[in-house]
From TrEMBL, chain A:
It comes from Paenibacillus glycinis. Gene3D superfamilies: Cyclophilin-like. The keyword Transport does not apply. InterPro entries: CT_A_B (IPR003778), Cyclophilin-like_dom_sf (IPR029000), PxpC (IPR052708). Residues 24-321 form the Carboxyltransferase domain. This is 5-oxoprolinase/urea amidolyase family protein. It comes from the Bacteria. Keywords: ATP-binding, Hydrolase, Nucleotide-binding. Pfam families: CT_A_B. The keyword Membrane does not apply.
Length: 345, 257
C-alpha cells in the first residue's frame, strides 16, 4: 500500500512521537507537535501509539491512496474530505482503493494528523521516523513532502485488520466506511483558539521582577507569525528580570517558557534545541501542550500557575485516558459488537 | 532523601540540588560556576545513568553544571510505586525520580577515574574558509599566524553538546584571542566552520545561522547521522586543533564525500 502526495500542502511532514536518547549529542527530539492527536489516530487504526503518521499544517495536502486503506484523521479540524465527502475526525475510516483525501479551510486548531494502518514505512533514523528539517534527517528524505512523493505503509496489525473487516462488513457499495466508534469527547483536549495554558514554575521564575510575573499571568499574549515547530514566539508586554544576568546553558524541554533579552517570551516546541541559555520563566504542563500546538498564528494564549502536583495529576489522567482508548479498541476488536469505547476519567 | 526545595545538600561524596523541569524531568545541579570539578560530577552522573538507566527513564542530558533526567511519569509509577493501575490523585512521579537519583548520587565517587579521550580536529585556518581571521587578529593586535598558533596550542574540554547536533561547547580558549560576536549574524555558516564567540570556540556541525567570528574550517564531519554515537565528540573529551594546509583540506574533504 502506498500514499501518493498529489499536492503537498503548506508543511506536511512524517512524524512519530520523537527521537529520544540522542539529545545528549545535541540531536533534537522532533516528533508530533500535538502528540495526543497522533497517538489517538494511531490507536484508531490499530497501530502502536508511536507509529509514524503525517503532521499536516494549516493548508492540507491532497493524498491519493493506491489501495484500500484504514485511516484516521485527528487533531485540528482542517475540513478533511474523502472522495468529496466530509471525513469525520477522531474516527476509524476505511478508504476504498483509489481514494483521494483533501483538506479545506481551517475550522479549528492548525495541525491535523493522519495515521494509516501499518504506519508510514520510512527508514528509522536513530530509532525514530520523525522529520528533523534543519538537519535533513528522518521522515521522507529528511524534508517536508512534495508533490509526487510516494510513501509506503507497513503491515497493519492484527487489531487493525479486524477493525478494517468490521468496517468492510458494514460498508455500502464503494463508499468509504466510517466507524460508529470514536474517541470519547471527555478524552479530547479542550482545544481553543485562545487557550489558557497551565504552567508550573520555571527554574528562573524568581529572577523576574514582580510586575513581569504579574503580567505574565494576567495578560494575553499573541502568537507571532515567526512561530514554528521550534518555538511559539509570543508578543505582549515585555517581561524583565530584576537584574540583568548571564545564564549558563542548560537543558530545556517541550513547553519551556524562556525569555530572551527583548522580553518577549518563547515557548519551546517539538523542534526545540536541546539546551538553552535564556531564563526559564515557566513550564507549560505536558497535558496542555496539545492546546498550544493547535493555537494558530495570531491566536492568543493566557497562562495560569498550577502546582507540580496538579500538573502530574493531569499528566496521569491523560495517560489513563489513552489507555482507556487503547483497551476500548482492543475490546471492540474481540467482541465485534461494541459501539461506545474509551471513556476518560 | 533529596527534595525539590532548591537548596544544595550533601549526597554521598558531594553537594547537589534538585530542580524540576516541568512535570516529566528532574535536573540535578552540582554547582554555580563552570569548571573541571563541576564537570567531573556531571560526567560521573551521566556515565552512571548511561550504564544503569532506571525503569521509566527516557534519557539524560548533561550540561555545564547539571544533568537533566527525562522520564515518563506513568511508566515510572508503574515500575516503582508498586501499583498495577496507578491512581492519578496524590501520585508523585517527580518525587520518585528524586528518590532514585538520590540513591544514585550516593554511589558516585569523590572524583572520576575515567581518562579523557583526546580527539584531534584538523583545521585549515584563514582564507575563504576562515574569513574573519584577519579581523580577529586585528582586534588583538596579533598576526594571523599568532592567532592560529594560540588557537591550535590549547587543550579544550568538551563540557557539553547542544545548540546543534554534534556542537560541542569547549572550555579553554585563551583570553588573548577571545573576540566578541559579529554585529550582524550570517544567515548560513557552512558545516565544519570553526569560530570564536566571546571566550568560546567551537565547530559548526551543520549549516546554521550564527554570529561567530569564523577563523577556519575542518574537513572532519562532526555530525554522523548514520553512526552511533552520531557525533565525533562527546562530553568529557579533550579537543586539539591541528593546522592543515589548504591542499590537505581539499584532499580530505574530497575523500570524505
Amino acid at each position: 500500500m502506498s500514499l501518493v502526495i498529489v499536492k503537498p500542502g503548506l508543511l506536511t511532514t512524517v512524524q512519530d512521537l520523537g527521537r529520544y536518547g540522542v539529545q545528549k549529542f545535541g540531536v533534537i527530539v522532533s516528533g508530533a507537535m500535538d502528540a495526543f492527536a497522533l497517538r489517538a489516530a494511531n490507536l484508531l487504526v490499530g497501530n502502536e501509539e508511536h507509529e509514524a503518521g503525517l503532521e499536516i499544517t494549516m493548508i492540507g495536502p491532497e493524498i491519493y491512496f493506491s489501495d484500500a486503506a484504514l485511516i484516521s484523521v485527528c487533531g485540528g479540524d482542517l475540513s478533511p474530505t474523502l472522495n468529496g465527502r466530509e471525513l469525520p475526525p477522531w474516527r476509524t475510516v476505511l478508504a476504498p482503493e483509489g481514494s483521494r483525501l483533501r483538506f479545506g479551510p481551517i475550522k479549528s486548531g492548525c495541525r491535523a494528523y493522519l495515521a494509516v494502518a501499518g504506519g508510514l514505512d520510512v527508514p528509522p533514523r536513530m530509532d525514530s521516523r520523525s522529520t528533523y528539517l534543519r538537519a535533513g534527517l528522518g521522515g521522507h528524505e529528511g524534508r517536508a513532502l512534495q508533490a509526487g512523493d510516494r510513501l509506503a505503509t507497513g503491515v497493519p496489525s492484527p487489531g487493525g485488520r479486524r477493525l478494517a473487516e468490521m468496517l468492510a462488513n458494514g460498508a455500502q457499495g464503494s463508499d468509504a466506511a466510517v466507524s460508529g466508534w470514536s474517541v470519547a469527547s471527555d478524552l479530547l483536549p479542550s482545544y481553543s483558539a485562545s487557550p489558557t495554558l497551565r504552567t508550573v514554575a520555571g527554574q528562573e521564575s524568581e529572577l523576574f521582577d514582580e510586575d513581569s510575573r504579574r503580567r505574565f499571568f494576567g495578560e494575553a499574549f499573541t502568537v507571532r507569525t515567526e512561530s514554528d515547530r521550534m518555538g511559539y514566539r509570543l508578543a505582549g508586554g515585555a517581561l524583565r528580570l530584576k537584574a540583568q544576568r548571564d545564564l549558563i546553558s542548560a537543558a530545556v524541554t517541550f513547553g519551556t517558557v524562556q525569555v530572551p533579552p527583548d522580553g518577549q517570551p518563547i515557548v519551546l516546541m517539538a523542534d526545540r534545541q536541546t539546551t538553552g541559555g535564556y531564563p526559564k520563566l515557566a513550564q507549560v504542563i505536558s497535558a496542555d501542550l496539545p492546546l498550544l500546538a493547535q493555537t494558530n498564528l495570531g491566536g492568543q494564549v493566557r497562562f495560569r500557575a498550577v502546582s507540580l502536583q496538579e500538573a502530574q495529576e493531569q499528566y496521569l489522567n491523560r495517560e489513563k485516558g489513552i489507555r482507556a482508548l487503547r483497551s476500548g479498541l482492543a475490546q471492540l476488536q474481540t467482541n465485534r459488537n461494541g459501539k461506545v469505547i474509551a471513556h476518560g476519567e | 532523601m533529596g527534595s525539590l526545595n532548591g537548596n544544595y545538600e550533601q549526597y554521598g561524596a558531594f553537594e547537589a540540588k534538585f530542580l524540576t523541569l516541568g512535570d516529566a524531568a528532574i535536573v540535578v545541579q552540582f554547582g554555580e560556576t563552570i569548571g573541571p570539578r563541576t564537570h567531573d560530577r556531571v560526567r560521573q552522573l551521566a556515565e552512571y545513568l548511561e550504564r544503569h538507566p532506571f525503569a521509566g527513564m527516557i534519557e539524560y542530558v548533561p550540561s555545564f553544571l547539571s544533568v537533566a533526567v527525562y522520564y515518563e511519569p506513568y511508566a515510572l509509577l508503574l515500575a516503582h510505586a508498586g501499583d498495577e493501575e496507578p491512581s492519578a490523585k496524590n501520585a508523585d512521579p517527580g518525587g520518585i525520580a528524586v528518590r532514585l537519583l538520590t540513591d544514585i548520587l550516593a554511589k558516585l565517587q569523590a572524583s572520576s577515574q575515567t581518562q579523557a579521550r583526546i580527539v584531534e580536529i584538523p583545521v585549515c585556518y584563514g582564507g575563504e574558509l576562515g574569513p574573519d581571521l584577519p579581523e580577529v587578529a586585528a582586534h588583538h593586535g596579533l598576526t594571523e599566524q599568532e592567532v592560529i598558533e594560540i588557537h591550535a596550542s590549547a587543550d579544550y574540554l568538551v563540557y557539553m553538546l547542544g545548540f546543534a547536533p554534534g556542537f560541542a561547547y569547549l572550555g579553554g580558549l585563551s583570553e588573548r584571542i577571545a573576540t566578541p560576536r559579529r554585529q550582524t549574524p550570517r544567515l548560513a555558516i557552512p558545516a565544519g566552520t570553526v569560530g570564536i564567540a566571546g571566550d568560546q570556540t567551537g565547530v559548526y556541525p551543520i549549516v546554521t545561522p550564527g554570529g561567530w567570528q569564523l577563523i577556519g574550517k575542518t574537513p572532519e564531519p562532526l555530525f554522523l547521522p548514520a553512526a552511533m554515537p552520531p557525533t565525533l565528540l562527546k562530553a568529557g573529551d579533550i579537543v586539539r586543533f591541528r593546522p592543515i594546509t589548504r591542499a590537505e583540506f581539499d584532499s580530505r574533504e574530497v575523500g570524505a564525500r
